[in-house]
């Protein structure tokens, strides 16, 4: 995978700096936010790969932020690690019930937090579909044979087009950014711009015909497969 974008939301400048420095050393791109308002503005145009979220924020409770993200169609798949001084078991349970993926209490070890971030991201790595898939008797895909049919007719896709379709089908409804699609296609060896994805998607839609409408463009974010 390419460089992952981590959003850190915490009203303590020292914590933002500490977490940012250590995550950057680990190879992540990091954006820090001292309040929820600035974080929400960021989400209008960006989609981080993971959020490190403080619970005790000045403007909105961290539990509410977690609930907001998990209730959002656009952001529900973003993993969340809660970072807080609250140590009560009830707080931890509530956070996990709201959809948080992990919970780290203050004071914390930066190395431990970095390890937790890596572990959560590994669990959320997209896995391409491997079994034959049928969608509404319209689209059929056989990943092992690299075969695609639309309404019973064979459709010839390039290997790149097939890999994109297979990735989107792995988790229907999940939005994949252009960078994530590029990482899936070429990993660290990519030497192309993200707009290359748009070209492949356009060709893929054209070849799929009526089934091409299943591939949705989420403006300024990426693409997803949805019936």
Supply the CATH architecture of the largest domain. 3-Layer(aba) Sandwich
Number of strands: 12
Low-confidence stretches: none
How widely separated are the two ends? 27 Å
Broad shape: elongated
Portion of residues in helices? 25-40%
CATH uppermost class of the largest domain:
Alpha Beta
CATH fold category name of the largest domain:
Rossmann fold
User: What is the number of independent domains?
Assistant: 2
Give the structure's gist in a few sentences.
This protein is α/β, with parallel strands linked by helices and 227 residues long. The protein contains eight helices and twelve strands.
How would you explain this protein's 3D organization?
By secondary structure, the chain is α/β, with parallel strands linked by helices. It has eight helices and twelve strands. It has a five-stranded parallel β-sheet with strand order 2-1-3-4-5, sandwiched between helices. It is elongated, with a radius of gyration of 20 Å. The longest helix has 14 residues, at about 110-125. The chain has two domains: about 5-125, Rossmann fold, CATH 3.40.50; about 135-225, Arc Repressor Mutant, subunit A (Orthogonal Bundle). The chain starts with a strand and ends with a strand. About 30% of the residues are buried.
Index terms:
single chain, 227 residues, alpha/beta, Rossmann fold, Arc Repressor Mutant, subunit A, 2 domains, five-stranded parallel sheet, 8 helices, 12 strands, 21% strand
């Amino acid at each position: 995978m390419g460089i992952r974008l981590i959003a850190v939301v915490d009203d303590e400048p020292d914590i933002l700096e500490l977490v940012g420095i250590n995550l950057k050393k680990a190879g992540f791109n990091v954006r820090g936010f001292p309040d929820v308002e600035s974080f929400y503005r960021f989400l209008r145009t960006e989609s981080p790969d993971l959020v490190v979220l403080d619970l005790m924020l000045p403007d909105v409770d961290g539990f509410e932020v977690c609930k907001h993200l998990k209730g959002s169609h656009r952001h529900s798949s973003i993993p969340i690690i809660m970072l807080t001084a609250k140590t009560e078991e009830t707080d931890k349970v509530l956070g996990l019930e709201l959809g948080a993926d992990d919970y780290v209490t203050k004071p914390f070890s930066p190395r431990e937090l970095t390890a937790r971030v890596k572990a959560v991201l590994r669990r959320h790595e997209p896995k391409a579909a491997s079994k034959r898939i049928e969608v509404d008797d319209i689209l059929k895909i056989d990943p092992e044979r690299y075969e695609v049919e639309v309404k019973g007719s064979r459709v010839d896709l390039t290997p790149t087009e097939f890999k994109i379709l297979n990735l989107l089908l792995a988790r229907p409804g999940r939005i994949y950014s252009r960078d994530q699609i590029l990482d899936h296609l070429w990993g660290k060896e990519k030497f192309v711009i993200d707009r290359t994805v748009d070209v492949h998607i356009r060709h893929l839609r054209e070849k799929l015909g009526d089934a091409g409408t299943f591939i949705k463009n989420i403006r300024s974010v990426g693409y997803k497969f949805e019936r």
